[in-house]
Specification:
This protein has 334 residues and is an alpha+beta fold. The protein has two domains: 195 residues, 3-Layer(aba) Sandwich (Trna Endonuclease, Chain: A, domain 1), CATH 3.40.1350.10; 119 residues. The protein is built from nine helices and 13 strands. The strands form two sheets. Strands 1, 2, 3, 4, 5, 6, 7 and 8 form an eight-stranded mixed beta sheet that branches. A five-stranded antiparallel beta sheet has the order 9-10-11-12-13. Strand 6, helix 5 and strand 7 form a beta-alpha-beta unit. The longest helix has 18 residues.
Length: 334
């Protein structure tokens, strides 16, 4: 690659790809400050509303919304392995369940941090996309759809094939390569090319919403697996009276009201309990907390936090220990 010499347009100056430290952080910063670089052709630049956002499975790099109020999960990598896609899908699955209040809370923290003039999500959205007071995206219309964007120095062929397959199936996904170049006279450049993206080649099929299980249906599923006595014990502990239970298409979740916030403390499935470590107080380091619980659990290293797996072979003593560990976790939050 060459650039034209501004002092002599008959001459070219060679440009070569260059390396630099903290590549992922640099990419993340560039995209956060210049979101137009990942905008689809003919569409407005997305509004970045979060950086290093805490989710149930980890920290997602960047969170944005587009002009329709739909969310965009942006994952930045130097060398994007095949596992990058699974990670991004996991983040999108978490974001899918976030309501306006959650997005507004994330947005306010981020926009205050970057010293934005407007920090309320609705106001920032209308200003960024130049929508009037009668604009299309009222709070309840945010996050109706999710989009995945992967940005990396290089997109390996295996990852490209995976993304291309999902794109052909109607999944809204894009992959970009972003590289830094330097010319021999010391000037720096960034090259950006879209590997996958644009409008999905196959129309998205309407998905019929899954219906929450009834308590009877969940019990029947647990009895088939031999795990009902564990869930029955969990649901009848004293801490359960301080929370309320909601059934989901896959199980149930216990929620607790804390001041103005409602926390999804843990979720129950037929074979496991999933703890939400995102709600642990900031003075508790979750790795240490998890290690302390793991040492007490009857299955030892067989337990993979934040999941507690349930087996039908629990003895009464093991069940007591299991419930005590769950109770310790709940008491640290509620």
């Amino acid at each position: 690659m060459y650039r034209i010499n501004t002092d002599n347009d008959h001459m070219l100056i060679q440009i070569e790809e260059s390396e630099f430290p903290e590549y992922e952080e640099r990419i993340e910063t560039w995209v956060a400050n210049n979101s137009e670089c990942i905008a689809e052709e003919g569409k407005q630049a997305p509004l970045i509303i979060g950086r290093q956002v805490d989710s149930e499975i980890g920290l997602l790099d960047l969170l944005a919304v587009d002009a329709n109020g739909d969310t965009i999960v942006i994952e930045c990598k130097q060398h994007a392995p095949r596992t990058t896609l699974a990670q991004a899908i996991g983040y999108a699955a978490c974001v899918r369940g976030w309501g306006y209040e959650k997005l507004a809370s994330i947005s306010e923290g981020y926009l205050r941090g970057v010293k934005a003039e407007l920090t309320e999500l609705d106001e920032a959205f209308r200003s960024h996309f130049r929508k009037g007071e009668s604009g299309e995206a009222e709070p309840q219309q945010f996050n109706r759809n999710q989009r995945i964007v992967i940005v990396g120095k290089a997109i390996p062929r295996a990852l490209e094939l995976q993304c291309d397959f999902l794109h052909e199936q109607g999944v809204d996904i894009a992959a970009w390569e972003m590289c830094k170049f330097e010319s021999k006279d010391g000037q720096s450049f960034v090259g950006l090319s879209r590997i996958i993206g644009g409008e999905p080649t196959r129309p998205v099929k309407p998905v019929r919403p899954s219906q929450p299980l009834t308590s009877e249906e969940f019990r029947e599923q647990c009895e088939d697996r031999g795990t009902w006595r564990v869930h029955e014990r969990i649901m009848n502990e004293e801490y359960a009276t301080e929370m309320h239970i909601d059934y989901t298409p896959a199980g149930y979740c216990f929620r607790a009201v804390r001041q103005d916030d409602e926390a999804n403390v843990f979720s129950g499935y037929t074979d496991r309990i999933q703890l939400n470590f995102g709600y642990l107080p900031k003075d508790i380091e979750w790795n240490d907390f998890a290690s302390r619980l793991r040492n007490k659990l009857p299955l030892g290293e067989g337990q993979l936090f934040p999941l507690l797996y349930i087996t039908e072979g629990f003895t009464q003593e093991e069940l007591d220990i299991f419930v005590e560990c769950l109770k310790a976790f709940v008491q640290s939050i509620v």
